[in-house]
Amino acid sequence: MEYQIGQLVEGVITGIQPYGAFLQLDAHTQGLIHISECRSAYIQSVDEELKVGDVVKVVVLNIDHYSKKISLSRRETLLEASQRPIVVEKHPNKGKIHYWTNQYTEYGFKTITESYPVMLQEALGRLK
């Protein structure tokens, strides 16, 4: 199977080392979950968190095509939706670039057109 960075995959823990856990993704592919990627909190030892034979979901962090090594993260799958990083995507529209995020907020941002009357009044007030 061809894996991509950011892809959510499932596998079986096949080995535990002090620096991480090895995960069998398919018959021919194995990846490493580094100890820092087991969960977002500090852990003393990988075997506190994972056991050989556990089936876990992980996110592909990095793929080194030269050495055929795949870095995986379990931490990313455990984060709450509010703790996940904001993803910004550019979408072209009639020559203009619009930015969309996965972060929904209902405060704090107004366009310059909407803010212009208030900004003008503040600037004129400073000139008096």
Your description of this structure?
The protein is α+β, with helices and mostly antiparallel strands and 128 residues long. The protein has 2 domains: 8-79, Nucleic acid-binding proteins (OB fold (Dihydrolipoamide Acetyltransferase, E2P), Beta Barrel); 88-127, no CATH class. It has 2 helices and 7 strands. The chain has helices spanning 75-78, 112-127, and strands at residues 8-17, 20-24, 30-34, 55-64, 69-73, 88-93, 96-101. The protein has a 5-stranded mixed barrel with strand order 1-2-3-5-4. A two-stranded antiparallel ribbon has the order 6-7. The longest helix is centred in the last third of the chain and has 16 residues, at 112-127.
What is this entry, summarized?
This protein is α+β, with helices and mostly antiparallel strands. It contains 2 helices and 7 strands.
Strands, helices and their partners?
Elements: E1 8-17, E2 20-24, E3 30-34, E4 55-64, E5 69-73, H1 75-78, E6 88-93, E7 96-101, H2 112-127
